[in-house]
């Protein structure tokens, strides 16, 4: 009874000073309110953290839907694009070509591309691309029409060495030559006069079976012969077909 009376006096004293004494129900509601505020704060922080990731995923999906994704099964795509590569350029050639080199090499009327720069710069090159569900084949028309890369899409790895820097050495018939890829050589010797120069590249098709092709070629000026390489990619196939033709427009055996 004395404890009860003391508790009542304490309760009345605090009430008289303006301090409300919460009962058990009010204390429970207060704890739930604090827990709810913490939950909302945690959710807000999670939203701020996850929002950039969600936006990145949405952007990636939009890029894929814009044509950067994989080709559909049974489909072959052919399109033009661009690629940036660090490049050590070859400087303008001497305009007077050699009639015949001291080593017996005959490249007339092509000039030598032997004035190489030691300063690297970023250059943009045109590309022509063939793609199906297994392979993506990239051509560089400005570098002899070479096959720059064949990407195996099932493994994500290239089929052969890809040179990510255009840094020529004095190896080609006209001097400058860059390693990597598949190059097309005609004429008197390998690493021919046009291996580092622009050539004609044209997209063909689609054929009745859905295949697409890229034709690479030019008329070289030493013997005036014309060469053409047609690279074909078929739907559902993981290999390339090459058809090579050389034309002699003269009556002289070359």
Give a nutshell description of this structure.
This protein is about 25% helix and about 30% strand.
What would you say this structure looks like, in words?
The chain is of the alpha+beta class and 254 residues long. The chain is built from two helices and eleven strands; from the N terminus they run H-H-E-E-E-E-E-E-E-E-E-E-E. The strands form three sheets. A five-stranded antiparallel sheet has the order 1-2-3-4-5, with no helix packed on it. It is globular, with a radius of gyration of 36 Å.
Distance between the termini: 127 Å
* Main β-sheet description: 5 strands, antiparallel
Helix content: 10-25%
Strand order of the largest sheet: 1-2-3-4-5
Counting H and I runs of at least 4 residues, what is the number of helices?
Answer: 2
Quick one: overall form? globular
Range of strand content: 25-35%
Topology (elements, then pairings):
Blueprint: H1 2-16, H2 24-68, E1 77-87, E2 121-131, E3 135-140, E4 146-152, E5 157-158, E6 169-172, E7 175-177, E8 200-204, E9 212-219, E10 226-233, E11 241-247
Antiparallel strand pairs: 1-2, 2-3, 3-4, 4-5, 6-7, 8-9, 9-10, 10-11
Question: Which short descriptors sum up this protein?
Answer:
single chain; 254 residues; alpha+beta; 5-stranded antiparallel β-sheet; 4-stranded antiparallel β-sheet; 11 strands; 28% strand; disordered N terminus
